[in-house]
Each structure stands twice: as C-alpha cells, then as structure tokens.
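hi!! sorry for the late reply, been swamped w classes. u asked for the two structures so here they r. pasted raw, havent cleaned anything up. first the sequence of the first protein and right below it the tokens
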Amino acid sequence: MNSMDKMSAILLVLVLVTSFVVIIVRHENRLAFVQLQKHEEIRDQLQTRWGQLMLEKATWAMEHNIAEDAGTRLGMSTPPPDKIITVQLGKPD
C-alpha cells in the first residue's frame, strides 16, 4: 500500500468518524430542545398559577381592609347573636 492509499484510508476514516459525531450531536441537540420546550411549558404553567395566587392574595387583602376600615373608620362591629334577625323569603307565586 503506497502512501497515497494510506492517506485516502485515513481521510475516509476521519470523514466517517466526523459524520457519526455530527449525527450524535444533532440527536443530542434535538433531545435537549424537546426538554427545553417541556421546561418552558412548566414555567408558563407556574407563572399562570403564580398570577392566580397573587390575585387571590390581593382579594383576601382587600376583604381584610374593608373589614378593618369598617371597624376603625366607621365604628362598625359584628352584632351579638341575639341582635341578628334572619328573614325568610317566601316562594314566589
């Protein structure tokens, strides 16, 4: 085998090895991209849930503020049980 044949054989092996490396890297890249999309979907779901919780927190805080304002600024308080009157509505005819 002359040196030209050896060089061709080495180049052929290098081309094959490089091709396999490219295939492996592209496959790993696809897997990583799929995983990234899954993580982004989970992130979006968590952000949506966080927004819902913040809205709920604001709602509870507003109700607390209303009750507090009624007591402090307006002097209102919950009446004792003997002062509470329940009104029953009749069925409409």
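now the second protein. again sequence first, tokens right under
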Amino acid sequence: MTIDLQRSLMPSLLLSVAAALLVGCGGAVAERPRGGSGPVRARLGQEFKLRAGGLAEVEGEGLRVMFASVANDSRCPEGVACVWAGNAEVLVEAESGGRAVLRLNTHGGDDYPKERRHGQYTVRLVALSPHPAKGRETKAADYEVTLVIRKA
C-alpha cells in the first residue's frame, strides 16, 4: 500500500516542484537578461547580436539596449510563394538619459523603418533570425536580432 500511495503522489509532487521552479525563475528573468550571464558589450558602428530578452551596453557611451520582443512577424515563410516578402517588427528598448521603445522593421522604407533615433544615437536593425519556414513554429525565445548603433 505504501508503494501505491507513493506512485499516486509522485506526479503531484513533481508538478509542484516544477511549478515552484518556474515561479522562482520568473523573478530572476526580470532582473537579468535571458540567455547569458550579463550584458553583451557592444561598440559603436559594429554589429552585435542579442537573443530575445538580451541586453547590450555600448562601451563608453552610457547607452543600454534590450531586445524586448517581436511585435509581429509576417515575413513570407521559406518554401512558400508569396506576393509580398512581408515584414517583422521588433521592439528594442533603449536607455540613455531617458528610456524609449524603438519599433524596428525588417522590410525598410518610410512605413517600415529599419532604424530609429534615441537621443544622439541611431539604432538600426540589420537582421532578424530565424526566418519563418513552412510547417515550423518560431517561439519568442528562438528569435535573435543583429543590431548596429551609431552616433547620429
């Protein structure tokens, strides 16, 4: 009877432990960037990559940027014939003497700017990966941006 009781309680115990770990990790994610032990060190004029939730500090500039999220991704999936190439819009938080959310796009053009100004800096989206593919779902944590920052 003891073995049967242990077997019946085991799934509940495992779920409780998993839930506690998830809740505990939730607080830590807000305090430091996902996917790394600290911020990426970036330099003006040089491309750098950030995973979703990742943070970068621009050396000697007092500027920090974080890849907050992908607001939408309507890019034409690989293996599909589309009339339009589509666009993905990413949200990048910039902080230097104030904070702003910059909306950057993969398509480019007047309606879909690839770059935005924040104070004396210009933040440009160079690339977003992975590219959508037919039959494959991209999760938020899978995204990575390539950015470059210049003084305006």
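hope this helps!! also noticed smth abt the second:
The chain is about 20% helix and 40% strand.
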